[in-house]
Specification:
This protein starts with 13 loop residues before the first helix and ends with a helix. Strands 4-3-5-12-6 form a five-stranded mixed beta sheet, sandwiched between helices. Strands 10-7-11 form a three-stranded antiparallel beta sheet. About 40% of the residues lie in helices and about 20% in strands. It has three domains: about 90 residues, Arc Repressor Mutant, subunit A; about 100 residues, Periplasmic binding protein-like II (D-Maltodextrin-Binding Protein, domain 2, 3-Layer(aba) Sandwich); about 90 residues, D-Maltodextrin-Binding Protein, domain 2 (3-Layer(aba) Sandwich). It is an alpha/beta fold and about 290 residues long. The protein contains nine helices and twelve strands.
Length: about 290
């Protein structure tokens, strides 16, 4: 074989792969630009360069959204593997400043809404820190931190609750039901909530009792996915964060006269005398949870 005439295979720069992953995870060029610390125009140029090297498009763009092509989906899988391998290689030779294990607890909603992206990005910058996650309800998470069985917990609380460490994010709580459903018309009102320690249950029940509205707990689960199943079956309505609504699970119209629910917050509790790895995770959560 004549090496001189063998066509050279182009190399995809790691920065191009990072940008591809950022766009895929955030859904648009502007948000991805913040993640990779570039301007939106620079991100656009990177994608043009990548598509030029590959000779085919990786994104379909329109005025409102960006989606991966079939080739883009395949490239995304490879990009994540290459970036993970790069992190592994570097961590073999560079002694990490921070290493250890962090025991992190979170509610079902916080896990679904924030943790997957947050922990993926944390692993990229802190490859020597392992994060062990436990999903539980807020009262148990508080108890675990208090007795030293957990290092950090993300819990739900009232926005004015000064006893829940540090407020990371405030969200609107609304009554949710099946779009076009009739559960909201039943007497007593069937509701879906969790146990006594759940803040969503407390504010919902307090509001109904203040309104002197008859209700009963028809569906009980600590998981939003299960509560939504109860809503979709039109068995009950539920107090849920507005950010979790969509599809056939919708905010109930004000014409039904349900009491207005107060906002709630996601708070972070940290163990006393936190180690460097614990503080690193806490700093990352402060930044990422507030951004979402």
């Amino acid at each position: 074989m004549n090496i001189a005439t063998t066509p050279k295979v182009p190399l995809l720069d790691l920065d191009l792969l990072k940008t591809l992953v950022a766009i895929a995870e955030t859904g648009n060029f502007s948000a991805a630009a913040e993640v990779v610390f570039r301007s939106p125009s620079a991100v656009s140029m990177q994608i043009k360069k990548m598509e030029g090297l590959l000779g085919r498009p990786v994104f379909i763009r329109d005025s409102r959204s960006v989606t991966l092509t079939e080739d883009g989906e395949a490239l995304l899988l490879h990009a994540r593997r290459v970036l993970a391998l790069n992190t592994q290689i570097i961590s073999q030779f560079i002694r990490p400043d921070v290493s250890g294990t962090v025991r992190l607890g979170a509610t079902d909603h916080a896990t679904e809404a924030f943790l997957s992206d947050a922990l993926r990005r944390f692993a990229q910058t802190h490859p020597a820190v392992s994060v062990d996650v436990t999903v539980d309800h807020s009262s148990q998470l508080r108890a675990n931190v208090a007795r030293g069985a957990m290092d950090i917990a993300l819990v739900t609380c009232q926005t004015a609750d000064n006893g829940t460490g540090e407020i990371l994010r405030r969200e609107t709580l609304v009554w949710a039901g099946l779009k076009g459903g009739v559960a909201v018309e039943k007497i007593p009102l069937p509701i879906s909530v969790w146990e006594e320690g759940c803040i969503w249950r407390k504010v919902a029940v307090d509001a109904l009792e203040e309104q002197q509205r008859a209700y009963h707990v028809a569906f009980k689960s600590s998981h939003i996915s299960a509560q939504k199943a109860g809503i979709r079956a039109d068995l009950a309505i539920a107090p849920l964060p507005s950010s979790t609504l969509g599809g056939d699970v919708a905010e109930i119209n004000q014409s039904y006269g349900l009491p207005t629910l107060p906002d709630y917050a996601i708070g972070m509790i940290i163990t006393n005398n936190a180690s460097a790895p614990v503080n690193a995770v806490a700093d990352h959560l402060r930044a990422t949870v507030a951004m979402r």
